[in-house]
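Pipeline run #58 for the internal structure catalog. This entry was flagged by the ingest filter as a single-chain record with no existing model, so it goes straight to prediction. Upstream metadata was stripped on purpose; only the residue string is passed forward. Reviewer on rotation: M.T. Logging verbosity set to normal.
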Amino acid sequence: MRAIITPFQVADLNTHLAHEQIAVKVHLTDACGAQSLWLEGDASQFAAAEASITNFLADIRLTPQFSDDKSRFTLV
């Protein structure tokens, strides 16, 4: 079974990033059979966003897999 994140969880994640003062916003693309997420904002903060996103998602039992440039991720 594929991991699924809801739009409400993405909104909570964006609130979490803002609270952590990370100038990045997560966007969800949801197509038939797959979801992908991408980051908008200051690319110099993508590494910090990766760590914060990973910790946030672990609390709801989701695991992100980031692209090499940290600008996109999927859930595994």
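catalog note: The domain at 7-75 is CATH 3.30.70 (Alpha-Beta Plaits).
catalog note: Residues 66 and 73 are 4 Å apart (CA to CA).
status: ready for reviewer M.T.
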